[in-house]
Amino acid sequence: MQRSWFLSKASRAVSQEFRVFFKKEFGLRVRNGHWYREALTHASLQNSLGDTEQANERLEFLGDSILGAVASDLVFFLYPQDDEGVLTQRKSRLVSRKTLNKIGIELGLTPFIHSKFETESIPPTVIGNALEALIGAMYMDHGYRKTKRALRDALMRHGARQILESSEDFKSRLHHWSQVETKELEYEVIEITGVDGNKLFEAVLLVDGHRAAKGSGSSKKKAEQEAARIALEQGEWRHQNE
User: Fold this and answer.
1) Does residue 132 have an active-site annotation?
2) Residues 53, 64, 82, 168: which is the catalytic one?
3) Which residues of the chain are modeled with pLDDT < 50?
4) Per-residue confidence (pLDDT) for residue 236, from 0 to 100
5) pTM above 0.90, yes or no
6) What is the domain partition of the chain in residue ranges?
7) Rounded to whole angstroms, how far apart are CA atoms 212 and 172?
8) What is the CATH number of domain 170-240?
9) Residue 37 to residue 134: CA distance in whole angstroms
10) Known active-site residue 64
């Protein structure tokens, strides 16, 4: 059944339960409850809203921009060695619809969303959108500086670093670098037999014909990825071969 956590449909105040939730998750107090009620009001209720009420699309738009700025700041300082292309990939993973849906659910935001859906059947996308709108409400209530700090802490607490570093494609990162620097990449892969009799592949990465790194793995793809990872982490060869 739909659970309403607001004091009344017409009221601008929000419930004590929401205030406790917000303080616990973001470390901030609710000052102007109007913004939070709007942030958690889904468009499915649009026809039943009063003249001074509206659903959360506008705050979702605002929250998306605030989240983008905070995510950019986060990856910029967490990964000082990454170039623009890699930073963009990391940021995209953090602000993706899949990530927002996941974090919204983990936060426990679902019961606070006011919609025509029953609480148990609210779609993940609606939860992710509500999270963006909540970020917009936080900004309107507390300004950018406090919102940035609160959001950054919440993201890190809910696995931001794992998300930023998940499914790392080292070959793509290296390929992007080679395009920018007009370098030619080549992988030489050979198959060898491991000590236990299993197949093992060894990949040597060449940059403009110079050996940059060597990696191994249970497949050609894994060996190439390992060679690319080692090359990116070591980095000295970039200057040696210039």
Assistant:
1) yes
2) 64
3) 1-11, 240-242
4) 52
5) no
6) 16-164, 170-240
7) 16
8) 3.30.160.20
9) 9
10) yes
